[in-house]
Amino acid sequence: MIKYFLTAILFALAINPAFAEDDQLAEKAFKIYYHAKDSGQYEKAYKMFAPDYKNDFLLDKFKSVVEDFNKKSGPVKERKINKISWVDNPPGGQGALEGKYAAVDFMGRFEKINKYCGYIIFRQSSTGELQVVREEENSMDNETEKQIVKKSSQQKADDAWRVLSSACPNYTAN
User: By the 8 A CB rule, do 117 and 165 touch?
Assistant: First the structure.
């Protein structure tokens, strides 16, 4: 049910214009969340989760996943927003899932990862704060890319990245 609903949100966000007056709020939440993850402030990032998302992703698991990624990636060099999209009451969002949502599409680079993209969906709470309800990050670390090139070709590495990055709305290769 929730996966169907999140798919409906992504579809609705793709066809609805942005609510420009709220973009700064989404950008601020994005920066706070990812700064917390990048700097090892796992509890701070986790506190931004909506209650229903916390039920699906417990703090210990979240911390473990982020720690593993941070070790694998090295320090962040750049993470930039490609697009912010807003939607009110997306199709299929009834009851507790109704509300105003922001999808933030992004890309970036790390010390050990030059190919990285994703999106995060925030739901605006009744108090106006943005809460994380979905996050998707895709990456190919530099060592993996080198191994694919060595064993096959740059074209195969590019093809593999094209498949991974296809899950990143509004991603464009550098």
Answer: yes
DSSP for 71-122, written as a single string: HHH-SEEEEEEEEEEEEES-TT--GGG-SEEEEEEEEEEESSEEEEEEEEEE
- Rounded distance between C-alpha atoms, residue 65 and residue 173, angstroms: 25
State pLDDT tens for residues 46-61: 999 999 899 888 999 9
CATH number of 2-165: 3.10.450.50
* 93: pLDDT strictly greater than 90: no
pTM for this predicted structure: 0.85
**How many contiguous H segments (helices) and E segments (strands) does the chain have?**
7, 4
| Among 128, 110, 132, CA closest to 120 | 132
Sequence spans of domains, the chain: 2-165
CB burial readout 26-48, b (16+ within 10 A) else e: beebbeebbebbbeeebeebbeb
Cα angle 162-165-169, degrees, rounded to a multiple of 5:
130
